[in-house]
């Protein structure tokens, strides 16, 4: 079970809803993934124009916890405004703060992310900021009241997987709020690694939506989260420099 703020979830997989080849594939992938939390860009929703196509129209949104994100925001002010828009439309169980600092890398702006997180926390939102894998920044976000912290594995949509295992493991060790590894996941292997590093969950989009077979990949990601979590709880063996025989001879008479 995963608890964020005052909500509890069965699944530790957070799924993005964009970039699918069509809405039927999106729905099937979401169903198969058994994700409880779905994220979507507020800017891509026709919130106040019911006649326009609705990005989530195939999904039974009542079944999920919705995590709108502030994608497209470049300042704290824009992110806060976007969060309020999502809230006003009734589509906001929690908010993912995403303030981009650079168009090419889509890496988050640290100071604006802190500012937006602080303001939204003070206004009573359940806030999950997307951040870099910087350990001290993750700690600051926790200190100002973030309900979970979401360090990136690598740049959004890059599929490069986890670039800095050390930093992610330090973040999961030092923070007490949930740590959700977000962005850059390329394959189930990356998900297992994130969970084995002690992440409480993983948020991904492109790796499923852009896979050759998105529905199959959604299932693989579900299983990877479960396998990584089980492995983490089971406690892996320490790495040794030299071999250790599987059938030790000590204590045997012959
Ligand atoms: C959907 C969303 O929130 C993305 O901004 C997120 O960071 C996922 O990134 P990937 O597409 O790399 O999984």
TrEMBL record:
<protein>
    <recommendedName>
        <fullName>Thiazole synthase</fullName>
        <ecNumber>2.8.1.10</ecNumber>
    </recommendedName>
</protein>
<dbReference type="InterPro" id="IPR013785">
    <property type="entry name" value="Aldolase_TIM"/>
</dbReference>
<feature type="binding site">
    <location>
        <begin position="183"/>
        <end position="184"/>
    </location>
    <ligand>
        <name>1-deoxy-D-xylulose 5-phosphate</name>
    </ligand>
</feature>
<keyword id="KW-0784">Thiamine biosynthesis</keyword>
<dbReference type="Pfam" id="PF05690">
    <property type="entry name" value="ThiG"/>
</dbReference>
<dbReference type="InterPro" id="IPR033983">
    <property type="entry name" value="Thiazole_synthase_ThiG"/>
</dbReference>
<feature type="binding site">
    <location>
        <begin position="205"/>
        <end position="206"/>
    </location>
    <ligand>
        <name>1-deoxy-D-xylulose 5-phosphate</name>
    </ligand>
</feature>
<comment type="pathway">
    <text>Cofactor biosynthesis; thiamine diphosphate biosynthesis.</text>
</comment>
<dbReference type="InterPro" id="IPR008867">
    <property type="entry name" value="ThiG"/>
</dbReference>
<comment type="function">
    <text>Catalyzes the rearrangement of 1-deoxy-D-xylulose 5-phosphate (DXP) to produce the thiazole phosphate moiety of thiamine. Sulfur is provided by the thiocarboxylate moiety of the carrier protein ThiS. In vitro, sulfur can be provided by H(2)S.</text>
</comment>
<feature type="domain" description="Thiazole synthase ThiG">
    <location>
        <begin position="3"/>
        <end position="248"/>
    </location>
</feature>
<keyword id="KW-0963">Cytoplasm</keyword>
<feature type="active site" description="Schiff-base intermediate with DXP">
    <location>
        <position position="96"/>
    </location>
</feature>
<dbReference type="GO" id="GO:1990107">
    <property type="term" value="F:thiazole synthase activity"/>
</dbReference>
<comment type="subunit">
    <text>Homotetramer. Forms heterodimers with either ThiH or ThiS.</text>
</comment>
<comment type="similarity">
    <text>Belongs to the ThiG family.</text>
</comment>
<feature type="binding site">
    <location>
        <position position="157"/>
    </location>
    <ligand>
        <name>1-deoxy-D-xylulose 5-phosphate</name>
    </ligand>
</feature>
<keyword id="KW-0808">Transferase</keyword>
<keyword id="KW-0704">Schiff base</keyword>
């Amino acid at each position: 079970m995963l608890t964020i703020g005052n909500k509890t979830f069965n699944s530790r997989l957070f799924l993005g809803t964009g970039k699918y080849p069509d809405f039927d594939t999106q729905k099937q992938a979401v169903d198969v993934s058994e994700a409880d939390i779905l994220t979507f860009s507020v800017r891509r929703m026709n919130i106040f124009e019911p006649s326009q196509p609705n990005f989530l129209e195939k999904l039974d949104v009542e079944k999920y916890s919705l995590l709108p994100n502030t994608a497209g925001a470049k300042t704290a002010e824009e992110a806060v405004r976007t969060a309020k828009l999502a809230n006003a439309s009734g589509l906001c169980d929690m908010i993912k703060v995403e303030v981009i600092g650079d168009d090419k890398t889509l890496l988050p702006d640290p100071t604006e992310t802190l500012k937006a997180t602080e303001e939204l926390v003070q206004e009573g939102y359940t806030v999950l900021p997307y951040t870099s894998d910087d350990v001290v920044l993750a700690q600051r976000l926790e200190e100002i009241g973030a309900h979970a912290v979401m360090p990136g594995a690598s740049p959004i949509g890059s599929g490069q997987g986890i670039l800095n295992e050390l930093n992610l493991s330090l973040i999961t060790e030092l923070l007490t709020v949930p740590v959700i590894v977000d962005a850059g996941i390329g394959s189930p292997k990356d998900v297992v690694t994130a969970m084995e590093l002690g992440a409480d969950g993983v948020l991904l989009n492109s790796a499923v939506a852009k896979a050759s077979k998105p529905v199959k990949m959604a299932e693989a990601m579900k299983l990877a989260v479960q396998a990584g979590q089980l492995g983490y709880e089971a406690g892996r063996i320490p790495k040794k420099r030299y071999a250790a025989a599987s059938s030790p001879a000590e204590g045997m008479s012959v």
